[in-house]
Amino acid sequence: MNSKKINQKQKKSFGVDQQTAFEVLYHPLLKARLLDERMVKLFNQGRFGGTYFSGCGQEATNVGAGVHMVEGDILAPSHRQLGAMVARGITAKRVLAQVYSTAESPDGAQQHPCHFGDPELDIVSPTGHVAIQVVLAAGSAYAYLLDAYRKGDVKINWDKDGIVWAGNWTLKKGSKLNCAFAFFGDGATAKGDFHESVNFAGIHKLPVIYMAENNIWAESVHVTENVPVERLSDRAAAYGMPGVTVDGQNVFEVYHAVQEAVERARSGGGPTLVECLTYRYHGHSMIDPADYRTDEEVEKWKKRDPLIVFEQVAKEDGIWSDKLAKETEDRINNEIEEAIDWVEDESTKPKPDQFIDVTFRDPKFNDAIRKRWEKRKNV
Amino acid sequence: MMQFARDGRREKMSSKNISYIQAITDTMWSEMEIDETVFVLGQDCGRYGGVFKATAWRSEKDGKPDLSKKMYDEFGPLRVLDAPLAENAIIGGAIGAALSGYRPIAEIQFMDFIDCAMGHIVNQAGTISFKTNGSWCCPITIRTPYGGGIGGGMTHSQSNEAWFCHAGGLVVTAPSTPRDAAGLLRSCIRADDPCVYIEHKGLYRAITGDVPDDPNFTIELGKGKVVREGSDITLISYGAMLHKCLSVAEKLESEGASVEIIDPRTLWPMDEDLMINSACKTGRCVVVAESHAAYGFTSEVAARVQEGAFWNLLTPIRTIAGPDTPFPFEPGMEAAYLPSDDEIYNSCKRALGDG
Predict the structure, then answer these.
(1) ipTM value of the model?
(2) With an 8 Å Cβ cutoff, is B220 touching chain A?
(3) How confident is residue B2, by pLDDT bands cut at 50, 70 and 90?
(4) Record: contact A196-B77, CB cut-off 8 A
(5) What is the structure's pLDDT at B12?
(6) How far is B353 from chain A (nearest CA, A)?
(7) CATH class (in words) of the domain with range A4-348
(8) Has domain B2-212 been given CATH number 3.40.50.300?
(9) pLDDT score for A361
């Protein structure tokens, strides 16, 4: 299967109506942006510690995929998936609790800012190893295949000698699979984990949506220094899955491409690699001045900001509304202000020794660690 | 034979005399029957039944394998998955499946290959509970053969268990008998914590033993066992080395020394009280393992026992471990590499001679 550039239909909004455009796409797009910019400011003001990984500039890529997630779908994020999480339904309070490292954080303040995760929404908190989450997504997708198999919805098609079957299964008509969503950058596709994941998912036709965010820079390393082919989507051919490259600044285009991929995956058609051409406005994290790239490059991308592109496309296709845009912004600002007040005034600090009690699920193992730790304190 | 059931009721339970590897296969088989979220994945696990045949045949009443049907035939290719030759996909895949409601048993064909998947084991599996504040768990079992003595050479003989004990967040078990192999494996599969279950490949078909025929027979993780009671000296070991310690104990016993032997069974978290109490009682302690000495099992046990039993010790704790080199192939060198009965015996004699 060859990689292809998605054909732009006549309408750049792919026939999305006004209500869907604003409620499903514009709201999370703007919410991710406003929340992200606000957290950059809060970090710069010293209101929380560690560092911060901004996803500003990459919201369309995230939202266009995240809105397709349903209950039970796992999200295996990298560092810049605020947009996908917002689209999946994470609240500003949960996000702020995480970056402020309060006891209310979904990770119990164990992880540093932007290693977001939320078990309630099946979002796995990432490790610092880029691409590890990509493998995990394939494993979850295998679980979804087993779910359907246990319901009797999967038929294995053996070869004529009854020996080989791999990937040759069919899903009962009408049955739907959950989908795993893996996000990763251009740099991560240089890692062996990426290869092992797409290879495994390709063999078994697993329902995985591989969201490759090509934002040109893997920290300070240029995409041409990580990837020997022109398009990340070209890699898909080696794994027997379709690869597409989309304009990651146009949420409509991402939404449409991922919709196709998700429909295929849920009905048993296997994984898709979706390359999104996008850009991060800030450095890798807040301690990175990003002096390896030019101001001209940044400005060029900012002209194609996801919010600007949304407005342009919506206007062209006659679905823009100043009133809806203003209402959406007000609603989001209220939620963010309320969440900041809450996190700064009412949230609580975790107990400094809380981490000991959650290392193992079996409490007696944590007790043994605690005993030794207390002995250290009380010699 | 009379035993106590898990709920404490006294009842008659049958048992079967089976090999160490048969205990492993039978336990996986029975857990897959009981719980359909349990599945097996690994290289050569399916059609072939595993390179050691751990995922091949269940035993019959006489304890011999029933060669008419493999696990693959019984549970199908989706639940006994022939994974690609890719350790990251096997372990990372198992973790993802675990987060989505399954209890995968991932086989790494030789423990020497497990380093390929370290990131997934240490930084993903071992941190799931921690990084979700205890609200998500990662119930995977990683089975892997370890140990030397079979002419496996450098990358088919290693004992790398210390890496996982050192990681924080992983349970590491090392059964030494068929009974423990069954009970510990079932506990690992049912545990909500990620477990690394290491199998001494030299014991696979070398030893047999009675294993209860109970589909709920478990051995508590984190609990060691006094496998032989004695009063003069404590020997602590596991795996193939434990069996060497047992034969050394016979010899010492015939010479009038009373030897206590402790099998930790779970290497991490460690049952240190059991070892400390024994060392306090006997006043002498020798720790034996074939894994590397540096930062390894023997060093860790020695450190903890000296801390807990210092004022009761009559003699320094002695450790016997594998040299801190890669594992050699040539039979003479392999024999020289592994701790021998004589070395264990001599060390015990020295300890008994002091004080």
Answers:
(1) 0.95
(2) no
(3) very low
(4) no
(5) 55
(6) 33
(7) alpha beta
(8) no
(9) 96
